[in-house]
Please model this.
Amino acid sequence: MQLEYFQLIDRIVDLNIDEKTITVEAQVPKENTIFEGHFPGYPLLPGVLLIESMAQASGWLLIALMNFERMPFLAMVKEAKMRSFVSPGELLTVEARVVHEGSGFAVTEAKVSVNGRPRCNAAITFRHIPFPNPDLRGYMDAEARRIGFPQQAMTHD
Model:
């Protein structure tokens, strides 16, 4: 997890195209300037970053389901629930599954847990479009390699 670059996913653990599910891991850094203000003496990973980690995991699932031809963009977060805190140094397991697809949109249900204990969950809606430019596509290709995106799911070019 590289908070300063908004790279919240470290690796894909499982990607199941048939079941439309993904599991990823993210190691929360032990030290980061974000913890200096959130909160002094009681550092916690901000809830918005937990939501973003669920959105990123969901996004990778959608990219795989769309054969790496379209880019999902966050459109709505619904019913987000923060169930417990996340502290520096914890290993997050983020799971997502697609619950609806159609008309250029997709909805996922996602959750974050630590050692099997739930920390948060949400329903997340995405709008997806063809990759808008080669720079973004190149960046996403590099990120896919970094997190272990399965090569067979990268059917472009």
